[in-house]
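[User]
If only I could read backbone structure tokens as easily as an amino acid sequence. I have put the entry right below:
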Amino acid sequence: QVQLVESGGGLVQAGGSLRLSCAASGSIGSMVAMGWYRQAPGMQRELVATITRSDRTNYADSVKGRFTISRGNAKNTVYLQMNSLKPDDTAVYYCNARGSSYWGTGFDSWGPGTQVSVSP
């Protein structure tokens, strides 16, 4: 079983910055990719950014040039640096991790989410 712990959410004014962190722990044999998704009230969960174990990144068009995803020096950690935040970025942000366990079974795990609120 893989557990994810997120931190770094909060309230910020438009134009400000926040940095989200996520650490994965548990029976992780191999991590394939980690990423961030978000869900605004009344909306479906959507991809924000992902990063693979080879550091290949993918971003939603709405955050390109403003958000940066990176992997930490500590194993199985991922960060999301969010700059030039807009009120439309307000959502619960979820960390996701995909890979395989020590025993070869796959996992696709989610964190509990962290609230990001951007005021006009």
